[in-house]
Amino acid sequence: MNPFCEIAVEEAVRLKEKGVASEIVVVTIGPATAQEQLRTALALGADRAILVESADELNSLAVAKLLKAVVDKEQPQLVIMGKQAIDSDNNQTGQMLGALTGFGQGTFASKVEVAGDKVNVTREIDGGLQTVALSLPAIVTTDLRLNEPRYASLPNIMKAKKKPLETVTPGDLGVSTASTVKTLKVEAPATRSAGVKVKSVAELVEKLKNEAKVI
Amino acid sequence: MTILVIAEHTNAALAPATLNTVAAAAKIGGDIHVLVAGSACGAAADAASKIAGVAKVLVADNAAFAHQLPENVAPLVAELGKGYSHILAAATSNGKNILPRVAAALDVDQISEIIAVESADTFKRPIYAGNAIATVQSSAAVKVITVRATGFDPVAAEGGSAAVEAIGGAADAGKSAFVGEELAKSDRPELTAAKIVVSGGRGMQNGDNFKHLYALADKLGAAVGASRAAVDAGFVPNDMQVGQTGKIVAPQLYIAVGISGAIQHLAGMKDSKVIVAINKDEEAPIFQVADYGLVADLFEAVPELEKLV
User: Fold this and answer.
1) Which of A89, B38, B84, B254 is the residue whose CA sits 20 to 30 A from A193?
2) Against a cut of 0.90, is the pTM above it?
3) Which ranges constitute the DSSP H helices of chain A?
4) pLDDT in tens, B209-232
């Protein structure tokens, strides 16, 4: 599971343990093998799972549209997602779902507090931290420091096999997953030439001054 | 072809990343308009009008835009953006927060964190923590793009004389409210714009020991950064983190002290011109990317370095 998504599942489980959330539904979009990630989330404490089965590699907007259809059906008060997937590094889906649902968004969250019909989200921003209050329903995307995800215990892994897992297709949800962006090629980045080891601080300073000329 | 650049600003001043974003717009080609959405943001708008190469500055001055809440700003940008070929914003925490909401409102895909412009519709961007570079092409009517500042040399902040035009538009969507913020205070240069960066990792052992790095940084006029390990251990605040999930820097000189060089950290600094590593573990992966490596105890090497520079 994407590390930011693990943090999202953990936060949902903690909200349920505090009595704030009544039910946790986990959703993923991908090939049939993505069921394994859903079972992991169920073992961590989610109640039921939905797999939107699609063999195609989907862009963030298509994913957000599929999630919008699930949100319309399930009517959650809070949607928690990771801030970015560490393969595409896009950091888009939560914000896009915000636009499509009209919900407020608390991105890059390091603290989430539900109070009545509002959620206060502390966000990691470039200069420090910012707190916003969002009306529920709302979307939260997780940053690394929100929590420390737990491990699934063996009994819970066994129990998770019996929890409900529903499979739907983009067609069932009436969503077109066409994209306006295509990848032309993927290449390795330019490699750095090998450096040298210096023997002393004096030699380092000499090289930085006279060879690299950076100080 | 006209390009809309969303200004990154604090209402009172323009953030440097705006200049890198305008540079990316200039590479695409066409007229460049800059949108300054904020509250009492006249000073930022004036600064934007002086940027070299900017044809027009649009100012949306409204209390609802004071803290750049995406629920309020994104509808404004999406409505305005329909008339443009490209919408660009810096890949800062603010740009990343707002722009995907704009893209979805326009029903187009977004291209995140470009590092190069191949043509008006083709761009390069890093994926897998910078371990691969993807070339992507967009057929969207409006191309929505965030720009990695370190990929583009900034345009001149002075020399332009763009017309400034006030615009109205969307206001408070009533979904969100600003509660407060805690900003780290520092007299040192801003991390992403500094020419020299000195960073510490787990090897610093505690927050107090960062004083050695601050002393060295002050001598060099450098900014101070950190690895995720140092942030998670509570040595320093999170806004100092350099890496895949923190800030991306590409200074002239990057000095990594007590940092092993995990892949996620390298993603944030491996485009630095010269990299120096100081680490007592000669097997540390950081030495594979360092131009100059010193195997030494940092508690002896850093104070000595501070004396000699």
Assistant:
1) A89
2) yes
3) 3-17, 35-44, 60-74, 93-101, 154-160, 170-173, 201-210
4) 999 999 999 999 999 999 999 999
